[in-house]
Amino acid sequence: MLLEIECGICYCSFNAARRCPRELHCKHSFCESCLRSLSRALAGRTVIDCPLCRHPTVLPGEGCVRAQLRVDECALERLVAAGVLDQDQEDEEEEMEEVKEDPEKESVVSRTVERGMVRRCWKKVWRAISGKTTDQRVDDCMTSDELRNLALMSCYML
């Protein structure tokens, strides 16, 4: 399940840095890092095709995603409301303080920090997949008929 606080391409939570939510001209939002990966230079301009609707967003100049695309403020508001934006920044600050305290153990701490970040990401994914309670998980399961209908609909879309 895709949350509205995550990028629809990489499924990482938005933040105020490299994963800042940027809005394409079609009003779909993705993180800045993914949009840079999707962008292509064409006749002195940058073109980004929306991965959802294929609407092309043409930007004057090359490599100007940050300057030309507006920040999706609604997504940032949802991040603040969910407490994800503040939590991620606090976690990063704590991790950086740990590294600065003992330079001899910097490499060990950096590997531990990376593992912690990976663990937190997997926890977010697991919560999004499984839900918070077991009752929700049972109610949210697809039946065989629903799965068959979904497969048929996807065939018709191709």
Automatic annotation (TrEMBL):
Gene Ontology MF annotations: ubiquitin protein ligase activity; zinc ion binding
Protein name in UniProt: RING-type domain-containing protein
Gene Ontology biological-process entries: protein ubiquitination
Lineage: Eukaryota, Metazoa, Chordata, Craniata, Vertebrata
KW Zinc-finger (keyword) present: yes
Region (Disordered): 86-108
Keywords of the record: Metal-binding, Zinc, Zinc-finger
Biological source species: Oryzias javanicus (Javanese ricefish)
Domain RING-type: 7-54
